[in-house]
Amino acid sequence: MATPTVAPLTFQRAPNLPRNCTFDQHDWEILSQYWHPVAFASDIADKPFRTQLLDESLVVFRSHGALVAARDVCPHRGAPLSQGWVENGNLVCPYHGLSYGADGKCNHIPSQEGGPIPDRLCLTTYAAQEAYGLVWVSLGGGAQPLPDFPAWNTEGFQQILPPSIDIKASAGRQTEGFIDVAHFAWIHHHSFADRGNPVVPSYTVERCGNGMRAEYVSTVSNFPKSMQHRAPDGFLWRRIFEVDVPFFARLTVQFPEGGRLAILNAASPVSARLTRLFVPIARNFDKDLPLDDVYAFNRQVFEEDRAIVELQCPEDLPIDRAAEAPILADRSSGAYRRALAEIGLGQHYVR
Question: What is the tally of helices (H) and strands (E) in the chain?
């Protein structure tokens, strides 16, 4: 069977990179073609919401129910629109009261009632949509597919949205760490794994679609340490990792008694050195237990990861495997790096 490849993206060159952009221009343009989460859908209510993606400051708001994402700059005098408010479906600038509709066009200038409105008074807007309880934005038009997370809408599965986590590291480093199975015993010894059980059994990896799929079976429990008595003796834990480039990974874990846990690891590149991690979770068991326990365990696991990922050197994920010394357990990492190279990202995709 031939190894699937991902064709390099074609795109129109962006006229302007964000100010003080931390990414290489070519790679910024590639990453801008993809969807990235920027907020929880519940964050976008009756006020404009400020966020950042790929070094671009954004304002997100709702106009009569429609989701709008725009550059957080008023084209009149450069004021941050996120400091304004939403009135009758319009985003109002806090500096001079100019109003902008869902199409980004200015429709009211209070200081000149009935006067002409220049065509240049128009916001730079971006493709935006809701999925999995999150708001997703594509700075490059949204032609690439949204990452799939079928468990989220599967009957019988509980939908859980833990708080996001900010990580002072590249999104590639975080994503690769999520699919790494050799670090369980060492980084997650206190949360769920065991340093007395460090061996990584042989596992299979295949390139597919926009990334890769790895299936890993071991005796490493996925229950928190306080609940590991619930796993039957000798139970084999099956974990399926699926990655879509650039920074999205799904993990499905098969629990005892037909339990299934699905996690979407969505690493949003705020900048080259700051990642905002969103992790929607769906499960078909323990649906009556307090969600605070889920949030606490999720935070513990990802804080354990954050502590080491923020210290990795080089800070970029080296796409060239020769830049680091791989081991046998790194099959999934190697496939992930090859997939990133195939969409055209450079060996070092930050300045």
Answer: 5, 19
